[in-house]
Amino acid sequence: MTIRRHNRPVLPGTKITRYRTFLPTGDINISTSPGGRNKEKTKQTPRELIITEVAVTQSSDMRESKRDWIFRVQVPNLEKNEVVYVVGNLPELGAWNHNQAIQMSQEHSSRRGSPIMLDNNSSGDFYNEDGDNAADGIFEEDGRIFSQKVALPIDANIEFRYFIAVICESNGTKNSAKTLIIRRWETHMTPRVIKRNTPSNFDNDTLPDPDKFGYHNNYSKIEQGWLTDETVIQFKLFNNPVKLWKNRLQNKKVHIKMTPVNLVRHNSLELQQFGGECIDDSLSMDTQDIVDQPAFTSITEIAVMNDEEARFKSQEQFGRPHNEDEFLIFNVAVRYPETIGYLVDYYVHSSRCFPGEPPNHIGFSYILPGALQPSVGLLTVPITSTKHRPIGQLTVEYVVIKPIPDHPWDMSISYAKHWEQRWSGLDVGHRGLGTSFKFETKNCANVRENTVASLKTASHHGADMVEFDVQLSKDLIPVIYHDFYVSISMKRKKQIEAMDMLEIPVKDLTLEQLHLLKVYHVAEGREKNPRFFDEDLEDHQPFPTLQTVLQELEQHVGCNIEIKWTMQLKDGTFELNHPFDLNMYLDIILKVVLEYGGHRKIVFSSFNPDICAMIRLKQNKYPVVFLTQGITSKYPTYHDPRCQTIPMAMRHALTADILGINVHTEDILRDPSQVKLVKDAGLIIFCWGDDNNDKGTIQYLKKLGLHAVIYDKIDEYNAKEVKESIFLVDARESQKELIALAHCNQTPQTQISTPLNTEKEYYLNRPSTTTSLKNIIGGDSIYSVPNMKLPTNCEESIEINEMTKDFSACANTFGHSVKANGASDVICKQPTPLPEFYGEDEAAKDCL
Predict the structure, then answer these.
(1) What SS3 class is residue 471?
(2) Between the CA of residue 570 and those of 331, 567, 575, what are the distances in Å?
(3) Do 349 and 473 fall into the same domain?
(4) What is the pLDDT confidence band of residue 175, given thresholds at 50, 70 and 90?
(5) Helix (H) or strand (E) holding 744
(6) Nearest residue to 408 (alpha-carbon basis) of 656, 137, 243, 594
(7) pLDDT band for position 324 (cuts 50, 70, 90)
(8) In a domain, 138, yes or no
(9) pLDDT per residue over 235-254, tens digit each?
(10) I need a labelling partner for 319 at 20 to 30 A (CA). Which of 274, 280, 452, 494 fits?
(11) 403 and 229 in contact (C-beta within 8 Å)?
């Protein structure tokens, strides 16, 4: 062992730091500094540990404002090329920006049982006592351990999460840069926290115990990532997509494998820079010479719509055998889709093969990026044999999912899979107060559906959420309307009194035309019998914009936003010929919700399974449920098998990693056991349909355990004694707890010592509404609540209920962790800002 010292005078306040560097056998440069001048000489040295002592001057201010902290986490089942990161609320941890997060290093040891020692080098690696940094990492039973040391301010509460990503390299163009594809991340409502003034968590002899990735607050919560800079292409194979014409290949099971192929040639220097890998060895020799370049940083996975394979996983070497009537999805993530083609290889076992013998390669297909220009489509490509003869064809449907451009995503919180246990049997107003254009007027709501007035009236009558439909006008404005068509009155020539009704798609009219023209619902037009005469009432006008609805509705009202899009029926026809690009269509709607959604509960839904998958991947904030008809005699069957039964809808929800499904009540009443099936899979289940418009049926569905029931005429069928949203009740109870806690901390003759602000430090762990205040105050939670003292001039007779009458500010939280909003309530006629709440109910936890 060699110890090197830099011969400099040690000043007061100077810290001696030892840097451990392991040097391999061979020629090395040894630096000396006699007289302040550096010289270099080459020496053959054996393998040894070099310890360099460096005097680093640190001011007292620096030592007091910062402290070193070691993040350690144990990660199981890490895939090839996946990297572990830590991100947090401070700039030192990336300020919740995934691209600014801190990469963690895998700990290394040459033998088991060797103590791990901290090395102060820039790499952040850890070494054993002998200085070894072997290639093999520390493997524990529960996964590998990753670590990183970061200097953090000592006077701030620090929130952080771990996530796993793949580094996506640049392709060498001017506007490209390295970015991260987020694979998995921790999504607990309350992130991990380091309390202010906590000293460093390590010393010279010991390291902190590692965290377990995804496990926090006594439960596990890990979700898939969302699209940051990459594009996902999903290829769907169903309805017997492979047709082989050779007789010898008939009735044989075909293995299918998909591989992305980079179509752009690069020189060897660029290949070294990108660090790409060659295409998989399982490809046949006759196709390898065509595929001479890798598809940089692509990830290919497969899922099958059955009970065992519904979640995406990596492909096998020779692909996956395709059985008749199966539904396969290939999910390919790439950064530069315009330069990527897709090679499909086909394998078949010979009739004389032995057990364990690999299948024979019989042919291949190419799907080029130029064929994937629309966001959704259907392709038929030839299957070419290894002798370059056509032997069949592949029919595949695809969807291209692009990220929302230039949106400032952060990792501070996600509600994509958050649903608390007490949110069960919620009352959801269908189109607000209900459908208003049914055949029998007695079953119609008395306020026009999908208007601001209808939504507000439903909220006034105790709806926990309101459901409404969104589509785009011709000028790309999201409007609230259910049907694809409207009727416009047309006067006949020479017959001024007579009028005809012309049905026009909503998508062909601008917002101004929808607002200014005399338009009717299709039912009104066909019957020539208008049902509403409320043109002078603004809130009663049809086609309110999505922005208006989100701004006008009270924050405590949850929103179930159904995305309207044309569906293909089983007979091959479409409900509507849609001219919009689906990615653009969804991006416009999502941007409005992300900007104006505020802190309200929002759940997206759609009958289109691809839209559900797209919304899940395009954003990381709001949950999605898949609308399904199931088995029904009331509506025509859809083309996509995922829409046809509840089990298939459930599998799609698991594949897309969405919150749950919204099923047709007709199918639930036919087989109520399906509710348990869905809930056992860890999914949330809503229901919809005309069968719900009955008090007895609503109560029956709630007893079955459905999380929400969507129905009409909520002013008549809602059985609540107090007509209030559950989220409003949650907000009031949270505020009561806070004020009661303030009472308990009250001391005589003392004014409020520290005004409450809206920083998270004041209420980092909101207790459950079912937790007693005695437990809250007497507990030893790591998340402290400061002493909150009320003014002494408060009258003791004031009831907490009176003090919390005005809880509109607190209602903004109702289950959300929110940013500071300056909300305040009035306590004893003195303005006292209310601290924000963390919305996670740690007693109830998520249902999921």
Answers:
(1) strand
(2) 25, 10, 11
(3) no
(4) low
(5) helix 726-744
(6) 594
(7) confident
(8) no
(9) 999 999 999 998 888 888 99
(10) 274
(11) yes
Checking 665-674 for CB contacts under 8 A at 24+ apart, the result is 665/689, 665/691, 665/692, 665/697, 665/701, 666/630, 666/631, 666/632, 666/633, 666/634, 666/691, 667/629, 667/630, 667/631, 667/632, 668/630, 668/701, 668/704, 668/706, 669/697, 670/631, 672/704, 674/646, 674/647
Q: What is the 3-state secondary structure (H, E, C) of 615-655?
A: HHHHCCCCCEEEEECCCCCCCCCECCHHHCCHHHHHHHHHH
Strand pairing report for 684-688 and 708-711: parallel
Rg (C-alpha) for the chain, rounded Å, is: 31
Any domain includes 284: no
Place of tokens 């005469």: 533
Residue 671 has pLDDT above 60, yes or no: yes
pTM to 2 decimals? 0.78
- Percent residues over pLDDT 70 in the chain: 68
Mean pLDDT confidence for 723-744: 82
Structural domain range at position 89: 66-106+143-224
SS3 content of the chain, % helix, strand, coil (to 5): 20, 30, 45
Q: Based on the fold, state whether residues 194 and 341 are members of the same structural domain.
A: no
Looking at residue 369, the DSSP 8-state letter turns out to be G
Query: What would the two tokens of residue 262 be?
Result: 């980079």
Q: Are 254 and 269 in contact (CB under 8 A)?
A: no
Q: Yes or no: say if 222 and 187 are a contact pair by the CB < 8 Å rule.
A: yes
Q: In 10 A of CB 589, how many CB atoms?
A: 21
Amino acid at 262: N
Angle at 819 between CA 818 and CA 820, to 5 degrees: 120
* 540-557 pLDDT tens trace: 999 999 999 999 999 999
Tokens, residue 531: 């049902």
Cβ atoms of 468 and 559 within 8 Å: the answer is yes
Question: Are 157 and 241 in the same domain?
Answer: no
